[in-house]
Amino acid sequence: MNFQSCADNIDIFFKIKKDVCIVSVKSRLERNGSSCKFTAMKADKLTSNHDISLVDKSLVDIRGDSVRQKKIRESEGVLVEKTCQFLNCRIGEKFFLDDIALAMGTNRSKLAACFKRVLSIGVFEWIRKQRMLKAKSLLLNSDMSIQIIGFEVGYENCANFSTTYKKYFGMSPRQQRK
Q1: Taking the mean position of all CA atoms in its chain, how far away is CA 9?
Q2: What pTM does this model have?
Q3: What is residue 17's three-state secondary structure?
Q4: CA distance 155 to 161
Q5: 100-153 pLDDT, tens digit each
Q6: Which residue intervals of the chain are DSSP H helices?
């Protein structure tokens, strides 16, 4: 059974039963082909109230999985937000992933995976980006030397700071300041 006929069977089944669940179930089924096949198979074989209750149970299971997935995404978002706040307050410090994870009450693998899923970038790429944004702000709005700004945003070596800055903004810190 291909996906299109599977989706058609689900539509037919729900038009017979009720229109209430069409959107939520169909969107879940579009992402998960195996659930689609299972539910369509059940829908094809509806012959009694017992069969209808089996389909109802499978749909409740699908909706339950969706709710659990949403809660996981929300908790990942909270972890990433909490981590970002923690790091922003310490943007000039040297970081190790294990230490960040420990401070956040999680492990390095989970923290790294959450950052990738929520922000689509890694932890250290996010830190680098925040450092560069702060450096740009300091360059434009203060009289601090370029070397001091580099130290402020966590670079011990002024040359490394300048190289990274140029990669991000297409100009050196000195050019930015002019």
Answers
A1: 33
A2: 0.60
A3: coil
A4: 6
A5: 999 999 999 999 999 999 999 999 999 999 999 999 999 999 999 999 999 999
A6: 3-16, 22-31, 33-44, 49-88, 97-104, 108-119, 123-141, 146-152, 158-169, 173-177
